[in-house]
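Entry 14. Structure prediction run on the chain below.
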Amino acid sequence: MKKILIIALACVLGYSASSQTVLPDKREIDKSTFEGLYVTTKIEEKYLGKYWEDYLKQYGKVNSSRGGVYRVATANIPSVSSSSINLASQVTSKKGLSQVFIYLDLGNGSYVTQGTKGYAEAEAFLKKFAEDAILYDDARVAEEAMKDAEKNFSKLTRKGESLKKDIEKTEKELANLKKELEINEKDVATSQTDLETKKRSFDDAKAKIPTKQ
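Output returned:
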C-alpha cells in the first residue's frame, strides 16, 4: 500500500515538474512524409493515444488506424485557422517516452510548420493537450493506486472475517471439549469407585478359597 502511494506520488511530481516542450519535425505517416510539430511526455503510449483521441473529438470527427494514427479531415481549431484543417497525427513511443506528432494542412498547399502563420497557436494547442494529458494520467495513476488499496483492504477484511469465524468455531469446539472432559471426569470417578468395589469383591472371593494342604 505504502509502496503504491509512493510510486503514484513520484509519477505525479515527475510529470508536473517537467515542462512540455513542443518542437518542429518531419514524420512518415502511412508511407507519406509530413512536416509538423510534436510534444514528448512520459505517459504510456496506450494511455496517451486514448487521451489524444478524446482531445481531438472536441475539434471534429476522429478516424483512428493502426500504428497510432489519428486523423480529423475537417478539424475546427479557431485558434490556428478560421478555416477547416486537415489534421493528421501519430502517437509513438521509444525508450520510455511517448510523443504526439501533428500535421496541420490548411489547404491550398499550405501547412503549419516552424516559421509559418499559426505555428505559435499550433504549439499552444499541442502544449495544452500535453498539460491536460498529464492531469488525466495523474488521475489514472491515483485511481489505480486507490483500486489496489481497495483490493488489499477487501482482501484483509475478508481474511479478518474468516479468522473470526475460525475463532468462533474453535471456541465452540473448545466448549464442547470442556463439557466432554467434565463428563469424562465424572465417568472416571464412577468407574474408579466401581473398580475398587470389584477389586474388594475379588479379594474377598479369593480369600475364601481353601488353602492347599
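The first strand starts at residue 22 and ends at 29.
Filed with the rest of this week's runs.
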